[in-house]
Amino acid sequence: MTHNVANADRSAARFRSAAAYYTTGRPSYPRLLIERVAELVGVERGHRVLDLGTGPGFLAIGFAAHSDHVTAIDPSPDMLDAARANAAASGAAITVAQGSSYDLAADLGPLRLVTIGRAFHWMDRADTLRRLDALIEPGGAVALFSDKSPNVPANAWDAAYGRVREKHSAADRLGPETRATPLGNEAVLLESAFDAIERHSVFERRATPIARFVDRVLSFGATWTGARDGAVEEARIRAEVTADITAALTPYAVDGIVHEVVEGQAVIARRSR
After folding, report:
1. Which of 5, 10, 101, 203 would you label with 178, given CA atoms 20 to 30 Å apart?
2. Measured between alpha carbons, how far is 116 from 54 in angstroms, rounded to an integer?
3. d(C-alpha 47, C-alpha 110), whole Å
4. What do you get for the CA distance between the two ends of the chain, in Å?
5. Does domain 2-270 have CATH number 3.40.50.150?
6. Phi-psi label, residue 251: left if phi above 0, alpha if psi -120 to 50, beta otherwise
7. pTM of the prediction?
8. pLDDT tens, the chain, 273 aa long
């Protein structure tokens, strides 16, 4: 348990600098995808929903349109500040609490749905699913959300963006460690109580300013590996990323806007018995 808690603390510290850029940098999940998941799981106003590893609260805020009882949990105080600000700006009523997958108390349940977006790889996945089995009500589900840039002509910019991101994460050591998960999420789910699995995707066209791609690079903890705290250091890193992203993406932009296609994905896992 000590090792697990240490991992949670380490991941929280990793995103201290990145948190400020998460809201403007990371793509939000398509609203239609959230609606589909809520419909398929049967989320209603009286049901409880938990967004585990909420980050800036994208999923928690999205599901607040379907449930009156949404709790958003994250180990990072900076991420929670972003989630509170985003919820206030959107008018979404959510409960925000600091914690991790190792802090799943019985009073959180019964839960109709647990959402996890871009965070499952930070957790002890098998242990997390065992804990959730005690909290999720019959008929409820776990939904793992992710996003990617599909290989379509509108995303011709993606390779150039990827090279900039790789350049600015070259010093990272923790990222490869946490991504070194030999089993995919589906394999872990199949060995858990939530072994009835389905996958859903929604493609969405977006017009994204180059400045948001700058923030996207800055939203990754890997970008800040080895950086010293302080405004001067942050300004230096931001200036370098801005120059590199601007040079890389300007050929694909019109009036500073890059047209992209975002694919939002959700893996819904229920109990088969």
Report:
1. 203
2. 7
3. 8
4. 30
5. yes
6. alpha
7. 0.89
8. 333 444 444 444 445 568 889 999 999 999 999 999 999 999 999 999 999 999 999 999 999 999 999 999 999 999 999 999 999 999 999 999 999 999 999 999 999 999 999 999 989 999 999 999 999 999 999 999 999 999 999 999 999 999 999 999 987 655 544 554 578 999 999 999 999 999 999 999 999 999 999 999 999 988 988 777 788 988 999 999 999 999 999 999 999 999 999 999 999 999 998
Q: What is the dihedral of CA 221, 224, 229, 234, to 10 degrees?
A: -110
What are the sequence ranges of the domains in the chain? Answer: 2-270
